[in-house]
Structure formats: structure tokens, C-alpha cells
Design a protein that fits this description.
Immunoglobulin-like; alpha+beta; 9 strands
């Protein structure tokens, strides 16, 4: 019985370390000398994957670099979180990469694919 608990404890420790390691893989967004912060997003069939962490963004100028990693036409739509007004919207062919430069205000933004059914991704801003 003691061996079972020891094995469970070791397994739990490995799972915790693996989870923490995965969280560390998401980089911190880079802010260039011109003050623009770059966020890289890969768009797949029905979801986005961010290269950098998108938690805790601050108001300012951003470039979202979107790459279509699916085998079909997708799109990118970004809106002001408070007003729901479009800041940018465009289609992307398979393998295509496009940049959306937007100003994120104090309320944040949300984005999605307007072509494929994806949920809105809300990005709140640290106030």
C-alpha cells in the first residue's frame, strides 16, 4: 500500500511539473522600439493558438500576426470589447500570413474567425 501512495505522489509531481512547463512555453509579447507590441496567432480549423501570453495586456498599439494553419479559407475579425465596433477584418488563404495593427483601448478587444465557427476570444486590459 505504501508503494501505491509513493507511485501516486510521484505521478502527481510529474503532472504538476509538466503543467508548469507548458505554461512557461508561452512567451511574453515583444514590444518593439516603436512602442508596438506583437502578438502571433496561428489559426486552425475552429480555434486560435497564441505564441505569446495574451493575459494582462495594457492599452496601446498592437500588431496581431495571424497565420492560417488550416487547409481552407479562414478569417480574422477584431473588435473593441466595449463598443463591439470592428477594428479590422479580413480573409486568409491556407498558409497565408497577415498583420492587423490596432489600438487597444482601456476596455480591451475581442477576436474570432468570422468564416469558421469559432468563439470570441476576449482580451481584457489591465487597468
Amino acid at each position: 500500500m505504501k508503494n501505491v501512495f509513493q507511485t501516486l505522489r510521484q505521478t502527481f509531481a510529474v503532472l504538476v511539473l509538466a503543467t508548469l512547463s507548458l505554461g512557461a512555453l508561452a512567451g511574453t509579447p515583444v514590444t518593439r522600439d516603436d512602442g508596438v507590441t506583437v502578438i502571433n496567432l496561428d489559426e486552425y480549423n475552429g480555434y486560435f493558438a497564441a505564441h505569446e501570453t495574451v493575459a494582462g495586456l495594457k492599452a496601446g498599439e498592437y500588431e496581431f500576426v495571424i497565420t492560417n494553419k488550416s487547409d481552407k479559407l479562414v478569417g480574422f475579425q477584431i473588435q473593441d470589447l466595449a463598443t463591439k465596433s470592428n477594428l479590422d477584418m479580413f480573409p486568409l488563404e491556407p498558409g497565408e500570413k497577415r498583420i492587423s495593427r490596432v489600438t487597444i483601448g482601456k476596455e480591451g478587444v475581442r477576436y474570432r474567425c468570422p468564416i469558421n465557427p469559432t468563439p470570441w476570444y476576449d482580451l481584457d486590459v489591465i487597468k
